[in-house]
Each structure stands twice: as structure tokens, then as C-alpha cells.
Amino acid sequence: MKVWRIVPKKTFVVPCTEKKSIQIKEIRVNPSTEEYWVYTTSDTATVTTTEIQARVAEVLAIHGKLEIHHTQPEGNSIDDNPVEGMEELQSIATFDNTPNIGEYDIPHEDYYDLVHKENEDIYDEAYWNACKVVKQSSKQVKADEQHTSDVLLGKAITAEPTAINEVLGEEDNKVVLKGKVVKVDFREFKSKRILLTFQMADKTNGVSGKRFFEISNQTNGKFKRRNSLTQGMYDSLKAQFVVGAHVLVSGSMQYDEYEKDYLLNVEDIMLVEDDAVEREDKHPTPRVELHLHTVMSDMDALITVKDLIKTVKKWRHPAVAVTDHGVVQSFPLLQEISQDKSNQVKVIYGMEGYLFDEHIDQSYHIIILAKNQIGIRNLYKIVSISHLKYIYRGRPRIPRKVLNEYREGLILGTACEAGELIRSMVQKKLPYAELKKIASWYDYLEIQPISNNEFLLREGYVKDEEALRQINRTILRLGDDLGKLTVATGDAHFLNPEDKIYREILMTGKGFKDAQYQPDLYFRTTDEMLEEFAYLGEDRAKEVVITNTNKINDMIEAVRPIPKETLYFPKIPGSSDALKNMCYTKAHQVYGNPLPEIVTARLEEEFTSILGNGFGVLYYIAHKLVKHSHDDGYLVGSRGSVGSSFVATMADITEVNPLPPHYVCPYCQYSEFFTHGEVGGGFDLPDKVCPHCGTVLHKDGHNIPFAIFLGFDGDKVPDIDLNFSGEYHPKAHKYTEELFGKDNVFRAGTIGAVKDKTAYGYVMKWAEAKNITVNEAYINSLVSGCTGVKNTTGQHPGGVMVIPRDMDVHHFTPVQYPANKKDCGIITTHFDYHSIEGRLVKLDILGHDDPTVIRLLEDWTGVNARDIPFDDPQTMSLFSSTDALGLTAEELGSPVGSLGIPEFGTSFVRKMLVDTRPKTFSELVRISGFSHGTDVWLNNAQDLITSGTVPLKEAVSTRDDIMNYLIQHGIAPKTSFKVMENVRKGKGIDKVNKVGEKTTNYENELKEGNIPAWFIDSCKKIGYLFPRAHAVAYVMMAFRIAWFKINYPLAYYAAYFSIRAKAFKLSAMIHGLETQKHVMKTIAAKGNAASKIEQDLYSALELAVEMSLRGFSFLNVDIQRSHAKHFIICEGKILPPLTAVEGLGENVAEQIVEARNHGLFTSKADLRVRGKVGPTLIELMAEEGCLGGLPDDEQMDLFAM
């Protein structure tokens, strides 16, 4: 064999430990076997061979077999033939050394120094193979290249993989594994080192792995460290090595002391195809599956829409029917994915319903397929009727008469063994004539693989498998006699045979005793189905599997279950004109007539988009809702980006003014605008009097671009979210019914699915039932296979879908009760609201605490909250000190006084306040942005601010900051908008495709525009950014409440404990400061073991302690004076409500107050009778001292006299 040599030109030293190193004299490589021999000298005898071998392999990026040969330190001669069987020793190249070995990867093609150029014979095949092996050792890819091959890390893996189960529990220097990634994390350290940790699993078990590496900025081709990646390689790895990826990896299994387990130290990673996906349908005439379930079949099926469409397309099936149990909730996503240009798959939209005759309790399965658009609408009506009128034990049943009434456009099939036909055959044992009568009602008959019905054999309904085949023969005969098509269906519940384990886990979790007996309900190919029915004979098998299923498909038109993506607006005649008139009227009132140019331009810009796209009615609706709440005395807070719209401000939808900071005179309408970033917000401007009339000027404006709300082109459907008082919330919903009609307003439906935590419980229950031990990686792989399966339905907390008066809801969706609970009185959309909100107007009428707190404070103090100035110095000081409370930081235990203030009361935000010490309203807005964002504060803005790199007023806190900053620094508005959109969604500055390649060049534009590096780096770290309009609205409410905290403390604390406190304990609260501190200390000592109720009580006690320190205290609950649910001011103290008594609920409290309104209670007996209070609760209240000495009854009281 030929062995080639590589010799360093200079001394080349490799550090092995902190104080020990070795010198590499020569490297030899056998290209055919990828064997390496490294000749070294060591400067100390204490370095072990294992240490040297590990370090040399790392530094030289050697992945093959490595042997270390030692020579004398002072000697240079090396045995020319230490390798047995070596034919010849020739040089490939020499390579330079460098003073800093840590920066290089050896060898590298750029450093080849060919030594035999005069002898062309040296360039034989062995030479080039040797060069190739050496080149593969260097994993360097130039920084300006993207690593887009199947090799994600290291080199290509050619060895066959071993089952994971075979490598667990012992060390192994070289393993190759294949599986699915179930967990992955890239942890980036400030040192620019990165730790990749992951878990992967195959069918046998799971394994955890790790790899340290760092990002190198070198692009000059010099040697890089083995554990060094270019930015391009890292981006590619991060984009493709994700949960769900199927990979081939190589590395070594080693025991990890920290994890106390054997981990895979990964060296090479390749993307590979999923073995399961390799199943193909090669039949020249594919079948059509007419009975299949997706994850929308409640806790029963595992097929995702995406995987289904991908498989159907790959198999060339003409169509596929989706027939979930009792629901049609997969339809929106089916339409979206199947009609995508890259797919174009025909879907037959159907359902497996529960048929019953009203005089008989028993229900049967039935397949209902929609053959045209009429059928879709009728199917929706059937779904609504079954969910609203005929829910039985959680199952939506369909009366036969309803199915007959809405049968137009529908095709009915006999379904599975749970269908009427087979049940009549197997359980009722009806004669053939009766079976024929039953079958005649259906449009086609179904037969299924006998493995689907094996439980009939286990349960004793049939004696053998031949009896199962005979059932199918009988159905085929019925079809022949009735002239009806008989089709073979699979009743597929999972995609591939190996997926049955996930259904077993789900059913075990649900408590099924026979979950381990899973039938083969996988999606079969044409040949697999033909094999299942071979006993019918070749021709008949082909007829039921291929011919007849295609005939059914031919009867069915391509339909759209969801209308085209056009917004169907509710109609309010004259709404657009009314909106425009009210806005200009308000603008003239505030800014004068003629309007300032900046105001006119903003209104015209917005109205062009709003009215041009038909959005005027949405604004008008929001105006009507807010006005209705204001008229009833409740403020409304805006959410989201609606405050970005000046039209919304002028229509009184929001208090947030998005114009640049400005002064405006409330008397003569003089105005002065600041358009170059001179000030963070209008509320920060110093007080000033009008130069024309001497009136104190009003200050406003938060500099929020309109594009934040409706997009750069102004054509994005406005999402107007409003925070109503929690007390007023139901009235707001009722008012929408008055506006649009009860039959046109439905709550926005949601669909819940199995999450990781729930799936984890199912997996552990399954493992316990099977008495097996599984490791974390394998558990997570099983968890991933069970998540996403529908397990309930619900409702958006405030979302309302509005149907135009001239349309029926079934044009868009069926309707139902949330979670099928008909006693809740709420009807929701059957489809998840996200899937139809692009077609229907969704009003977000949310309940919120702040408006309720403000209403209580206004009622108790007589102060109009809208008159509170947003630059009040004392109020502002609460966010940077405790002085305004009359307490020291040491007394309060906090350097700031924002405890209990919404947005600023949590320990996390209080630490932000300590770091930033805000002095202006706009800085409070920034802090709100930091706290609501993801990866905006920690390891980002916090470091920039505390290090003095940038001031608080410049750090990126909200999405608007990016657009404003870039435009102010000369970047084109559209680029600024696009960058903002990417960053706010956590996508970085440039868009990146699925293999990590940049598809835009915005970062270079920013660099060329001299945008500072700190700004660019900050943007690249962000995961989510809050809109400034939302932050402003929140801070306005918070600032008002903070003002009350200083100026009306008793009212503030009473409102806090009435609305915001989630827990209250009389014995802990009413006995003063020391008791309060003692209880807090007891809870704190429990640490993470403290219950949720204890944690909530701790938060409430923090406010109670503050209140006590300020000289205020609680009274005890008083049966004769306490409010039902609100804390009230009484005798200069705070009187807790009746609900503060443990175990006394709101309904009982209301009963007590209602009885008390007709006369004070005279005895415990009176309280029991008139207040309808049980004796146990009465005794508890007596023990707590809440009854004020009430006698047991009137007779005892008279006797005492």
C-alpha cells in the first residue's frame, strides 16, 4: 500500500493540557483506509497517550484510525517504514506553521507545497486520493459560501448506522447512528463559543448528544480549528438541524459526569431521508382512499394535513377523502395546502358522522362526502345541528331525518364495522333481506382489510379470520344485488405502519384497556390494498380497490370549503362618510381650521388606505363600541397597533396619538411639531404657554408610523383590539349583537391540541403499563409523535366573528358550543378563528383589569382619570425611587416604588427600572417594550445600557424604534419597514431560506448606511418586538393608577386588592406588619415548592406590607358592612369583602348582601335563613370574628336580656 507523508516546515507544537504539549514531526496517511500515523515528540513524560491522541485528533480534524508514534525530543530521524506492509513512502506536501496553533485547522488545501512538480508520475490516482482524504479532514468552508449540501457538519458519513439501543450504556470511540431529531438547542455564549445539545431517536431508543464549536471570522483560507465554523456554516446548521429532521450522525459515546449518562460527542452530521417516507405507490392505476382521519379526529388519529397531501401527491393518487369523526375542522388547512401551487391535490371533503334514529338510542358510523358546493353547505348545516341540538355524551349525533332533509349534494357510505350495515350483520344477526333493505338507503358500500376488524374475533363476535372475510363477501354481494358500488377503504388513522405506537400511547392515556391491540389503520398503497383483498380474486380486488374508488371520485366536483380570501365586511350604510366627518370635525376642534399640514397629510394618507380598501366600517364599529363604553362610564384601553392610526385617535377609538411630539393650544389651536427626533414623546416636552394667547399648551404625540398598523402599502386588514373593563365586558359583547343581529355574531372558536406536557404524561403511563424503562431522548421522541392531536375546542377570550347580514354563517363555517358544553350558552365558530379571520371581521373585545380599577378609583375619589398629567414629577419618581411613598428603599425592600403598578410591578420589571432609572414617559414606554419583547432586554438592551454603549432612549425596545431610527439615519423607508418586519418576528435583519441562505441584503445596506454595529447586532438577537402603540396605551393606564397610589393611597390599595390581588388570607393580612412579614418569610422559605396560591398570596402580601409601612391597615370582614367582592374604605381603613373569607364564594356573598339590603342580620339563625348560608360557613365566619357577636338566634338573645 502507498502511504503519503505531510511534513511541517517549522516547529509545530500542540498544547495537550494547561502546561504540557507535544511537537508534531510528521503526518502519514493511507488514502484507501483513511488511517493516520502521527509522529510526535513530547516535552514531558507525564502526558498520557490517551491525552495526546484526543488532542491531536481534535487539532488535526482526524476522523479515521489514528496512531501516535513517539520520537526523541532532540532527534529528527523517523523510521521510514513503521507500518507493516508499506510499499512506498512519498510526500504529498509540506505545510507552514504559525505561532498560534489555536487559530488553524490542519492540513488545508491552500497550504499544499508540492515537492515533486518535475516528476509528473507522482500525480497518480493514489496521490489524488490522498489529497482528497486530507482535504476532507479540513471541514473549513469559506465564509462567503453557504453550506447547503446534505453534510451539515464535518464530512460525509459512509458507514452503516447502528441501532441506538445497541450503543447505550457503554463507551465507544466510533459510532454511526440514524434517527429523528426530537430536541435541539444552540446555546450561544458571550465568548462566541456555541454549545449544540440535541436528542435523537430511532425505533429502538433515544440518545442525547452535544458539540462545542465557535464562529470564526477568518476568510483568508488560513487553517481553522477543528471546532470552528464560519458564519455561513453555522447559519446552515442552525436552519436545517431542527426538530423533526432525519439525520445520520457519527461520533463517540462517552460518559458525561454532569449529565450522569452516556452522551454522543458528535463529529459529523448529515441530513437523510425519513425511512418511512420511502414507501411508494408504484401501481400504474392508483386507488382513491375514501375513509381517512386526520389529527382533528379527537384523540384518535395522527395524520397531519401536510404529511397527507405530501404523500398523496408523491403516490400520484387522483384524490383523497378526509372523514374525521363528527367534525370538519381539517377543511381550512386541507384547502390551503392542497391548492397550493406546489401541490394541486384533489381533496374530497367529508366526515364520519354518528347516525341515529330518534326512537333508538344506538348510533352508527356513517361516511358523508360532499360532491359539490351545495353539499359543502349542507354538510356544514348538519354539523351545526348535530353540535347544537344532538350532543350526547360529548358526541355530536345526526338524526336520520336531518340527514334526509339536507341530503342534496351529499354521498353516503356505510362506513366501518361500527356502521349500521356491519353491526346489523354481526351483532343483530339480521337476515339477508333486512340487510338489503338497510344497504339500499346508502349510496355506496364499504369493505375494509380484515385486520381492521380483528377485535370482532377477540370479542367473540366471529369465530375466525375467514368469518371476517365472509362479512366483506356479503357486502360485495349486497352491492351487486342493489346495483351499488362497493369500495375498499382503509379507515386510515396514521400514515405509516410504525406510527401505531403513538395511537397506542394516546389510547392508553385515555384509559382504554385494550390499547395495545392496535389494528393496522395505516394509509395503504394501491398494491398493499390489492394484497389485502386478494381473496376476492384479482378482478374483483381491482374493482373494489381501484375502479370503484375512482368512480366515486369522478362523481365529486372540486369544491372550496372556505370562500376565497376576501374580507366579507358587515354593512353599516353611511359608515365611511360618518367616520370621515367625525375625524375631521375632531381634528378641527383640536388643531384648528385650516389644519396644520402635518395633520392634513396624515389624515389623507390614512383615509386613502382605510376607505380605499373598504376598512371604514371596521373603524366605525370600533368607534361605536368604545363610545358605548364611555357613555356607561368605563374607559377603554387599546391593544396592538391600533394606536398607530391617527384616524383611530380622531374617532376616539384610542387615546394614543401617533403624530410626532407636539404642542397644541386647547384655546386657539396653535401647534408646534418636533419631527426630527428631538424628543422621545410629546409627554416629555417641558411645560410651555401658547405664544398667541398665553394658555398652557397641551402636549401629545408618540411618533408612531401608520405602516405599523396597515403595512407599508396600507392594505393590511386592521386588527382593532380593545381592552374593556372586565365588569363591562359582557355588555360590550351584548352590544355587538344589537349592532349586527344575534344570528350574525359568534364567538371566535379555538381548537386545542395535545401539548408536550400532556403527551409526556401519556408516554409515562404507557411505559408503566408495558413495564418498560425509557430514557429522556426516547420519551421526547414518543412525545413528539403524540403532540398536535386535537383534544378539545374552546373560544377566544374576547374575539367575536361578524357575519354580514345578507349571508349565512354556513357560507364560512359550522357552529358549535365550546368543548361541546351546551349549558355554557355561548356559540362559537366550528373552525379555528385563525383559518377564517381573513374572510370575516373579527372584533377583539377583551376584558381587562385596568379600566375596572380606573372606574373604581374615579368613583371613590371623584377624580377624572383623563385629567391626570402624564409628566407629574411625583408620579414619575415612583419608577426610580421610593421617595414619593415616604419610605426608604431599605424599609420597603425595593429601590423603586412601582410595586402593584400594572406593567411595572413584577420583580423582573422592577430590576429593569433599577438598571435604567427612567425619568420620562417615553422611557417608561421603552421599558414596557423591553418587558413584553423576547430577547430584547436580557443579553441585549440591558448590556448596551448598563455598559454605557447606548442611552436608554436609543436602545431598541419596540418595533417602531427600528423603522424610526433607520429612516432618521437615512435608510430608505421601505427598507426600514422590511427590516422592522423581519426583526419583530424574530427572523433577523435578512430573510433566510430553509437551508440558512440569505434571500435579502438588508444588513449590507445598513452597514453601507453607517448604521452602528451595536444596532445591527441588537436586531439580530431579537425574537419578538412589542408595538409602541400598545406599550403607550398600557403605560398611560399604569401612570394614572400610579398617580392615585401617591395621591389617594387608601383608594389605590382598596382597588388593588379588589381587582388585582389573586389571593387574600384574613389571618395573614389583618393582624399587622409583623404577621404579614412572617407569612411572607414562611412562603419564601419554600422556594419553588411553594404552591401557586402561596405565590399569589406572597405578591398580595408585598402590597399589604407596603400599605402597612405607609400607615394604613385592614379592618376585619364585617357581616353587616362588608361589600360582596370589593375592598372598601371605612373609618380610614380598608374593609375586606365577604369573599375574603376562605370558602365564601361570590354567589353566596351576593346572597348575603341582597338579604342585608332588606335589614341587618339579627342572629346566626337569621343569617342562615335569609342569607342562605350553611352552618359550617357561619361557624368559620364566627371563628374569624366576622359576625360581630351575633347571637345564635333571637330567643337566646331575649333570654340574655
TrEMBL record:
<dbReference type="GO" id="GO:0008408">
    <property type="term" value="F:3'-5' exonuclease activity"/>
</dbReference>
<feature type="domain" description="Polymerase/histidinol phosphatase N-terminal">
    <location>
        <begin position="288"/>
        <end position="357"/>
    </location>
</feature>
<dbReference type="InterPro" id="IPR003141">
    <property type="entry name" value="Pol/His_phosphatase_N"/>
</dbReference>
<dbReference type="Pfam" id="PF07733">
    <property type="entry name" value="DNA_pol3_alpha"/>
</dbReference>
<dbReference type="InterPro" id="IPR004805">
    <property type="entry name" value="DnaE2/DnaE/PolC"/>
</dbReference>
<dbReference type="InterPro" id="IPR016195">
    <property type="entry name" value="Pol/histidinol_Pase-like"/>
</dbReference>
<dbReference type="Pfam" id="PF17657">
    <property type="entry name" value="DNA_pol3_finger"/>
</dbReference>
<comment type="function">
    <text>Required for replicative DNA synthesis. This DNA polymerase also exhibits 3' to 5' exonuclease activity.</text>
</comment>
<keyword id="KW-0548">Nucleotidyltransferase</keyword>
<dbReference type="GO" id="GO:0005737">
    <property type="term" value="C:cytoplasm"/>
</dbReference>
<dbReference type="InterPro" id="IPR012340">
    <property type="entry name" value="NA-bd_OB-fold"/>
</dbReference>
<keyword id="KW-0808">Transferase</keyword>
<dbReference type="Pfam" id="PF02811">
    <property type="entry name" value="PHP"/>
</dbReference>
<dbReference type="GO" id="GO:0006261">
    <property type="term" value="P:DNA-templated DNA replication"/>
</dbReference>
<keyword id="KW-0378">Hydrolase</keyword>
<dbReference type="InterPro" id="IPR040982">
    <property type="entry name" value="DNA_pol3_finger"/>
</dbReference>
<dbReference type="InterPro" id="IPR029460">
    <property type="entry name" value="DNAPol_HHH"/>
</dbReference>
<comment type="similarity">
    <text>Belongs to the DNA polymerase type-C family. PolC subfamily.</text>
</comment>
<keyword id="KW-0235">DNA replication</keyword>
<keyword id="KW-0540">Nuclease</keyword>
<protein>
    <recommendedName>
        <fullName>DNA polymerase III PolC-type</fullName>
        <ecNumber>2.7.7.7</ecNumber>
    </recommendedName>
</protein>
<dbReference type="GO" id="GO:0003677">
    <property type="term" value="F:DNA binding"/>
</dbReference>
<dbReference type="GO" id="GO:0003887">
    <property type="term" value="F:DNA-directed DNA polymerase activity"/>
</dbReference>
<keyword id="KW-0269">Exonuclease</keyword>
<keyword id="KW-0239">DNA-directed DNA polymerase</keyword>
<dbReference type="InterPro" id="IPR044923">
    <property type="entry name" value="PolC_middle_finger_sf"/>
</dbReference>
<dbReference type="InterPro" id="IPR004013">
    <property type="entry name" value="PHP_dom"/>
</dbReference>
<dbReference type="InterPro" id="IPR011708">
    <property type="entry name" value="DNA_pol3_alpha_NTPase_dom"/>
</dbReference>
<keyword id="KW-0963">Cytoplasm</keyword>
<dbReference type="InterPro" id="IPR006308">
    <property type="entry name" value="Pol_III_a_PolC-type_gram_pos"/>
</dbReference>
<dbReference type="Pfam" id="PF14579">
    <property type="entry name" value="HHH_6"/>
</dbReference>
